[in-house]
């Protein structure tokens, strides 16, 4: 916890997500990792 962090320099990441309307065995999907140059486009 950053109690005195600077807001523009603070990043928040979602680590978990739950959807009560999806079955437990629902197919999971994701994104392929970007190359170094794709990160800047």
Automatic annotation (TrEMBL):
<protein>
    <submittedName>
        <fullName>CAZy families GT39 protein</fullName>
    </submittedName>
</protein>
